C-alpha cells in the first residue's frame, strides 16, 4: 500500500493539557528518545494518578537540523505535576493546519513539505511549534503501511 496523506485542513483547537519529556536530540537518536520518553511520562502519570487522554505526541520546537528540540508524551485529563524531568505543558489552542499521513515515518518529510506548500497557497504562516499525534502504534520490524500520524501545526498570528 503506498504512503498517503489526507488533504490539509484548517481547524480550531482547544488548548490541551499534556505531560512530556523535552530534550535536544540527534535526529538518528529519535527512536530511542521516544521510547525512553513515553515510558518516563507514563510512569510519572501513573504515580500521580493522572489519566492519559489521547494518543502519544511528539512536539517539535523550531526546525530540525542535525539535532531537534523535541518533547514526547501524552495529552492528559488534567495538569500533571513536574516530576523527574517530565513537565506539564499546554498544547496551544486556536487555528491550526492538520494533515493525516498514512505510511512509514520515512514519508513524514514529504507530508510536511506538502503542508508547508499548502499553507503558503492559503496565505497562512506556520507557528514555531508543531506536533505529531501517533494514532496507530507501529510494531517493531512490522509493516508500517497502515501507520497513521496526524500532523498539527498551529498558525502564526
From TrEMBL:
Domain of life: Bacteria
Pfam families: GyrI-like
InterPro entries: AraC_E-bd, GyrI-like, Reg_factor_effector_dom_sf, SmbC-like
Domain AraC effector-binding positions: 6-156
Coiled-coil features, chain-numbered ranges: none
Protein's UniProt name: GyrI-like domain-containing protein
UniProt source species: Arthrobacter halodurans
Amino acid at each position: 500500500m503506498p504512503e498517503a496523506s489526507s488533504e490539509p485542513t484548517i481547524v480550531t483547537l482547544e488548548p490541551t493539557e499534556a505531560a512530556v519529556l523535552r530534550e535536544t536530540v540527534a535526529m538518528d537518536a529519535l527512536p530511542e528518545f521516544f521510547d525512553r520518553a513515553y515510558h518516563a511520562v507514563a510512569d510519572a502519570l501513573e504515580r500521580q494518578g493522572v489519566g492519559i487522554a489521547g494518543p502519544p505526541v511528539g512536539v517539535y520546537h523550531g526546525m530540525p537540523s542535525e539535532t531537534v528540540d523535541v518533547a514526547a508524551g501524552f495529552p492528559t485529563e488534567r495538569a500533571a505535576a513536574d516530576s523527574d524531568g517530565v513537565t506539564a505543558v499546554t498544547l496551544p489552542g486556536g487555528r491550526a493546519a492538520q494533515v493525516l499521513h498514512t505510511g512509514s515515518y520515512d514519508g513524514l518529510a514529504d507530508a510536511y513539505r506538502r503542508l508547508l506548500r499548502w499553507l503558503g497557497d492559503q496565505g497562512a504562516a506556520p507557528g514555531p511549534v508543531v506536533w505529531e499525534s501517533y494514532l496507530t502504534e507501529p510494531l517493531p520490524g512490522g509493516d508500517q503501511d497502515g501507520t497513521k500520524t496526524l500532523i498539527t501545526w498551529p498558525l502564526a498570528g
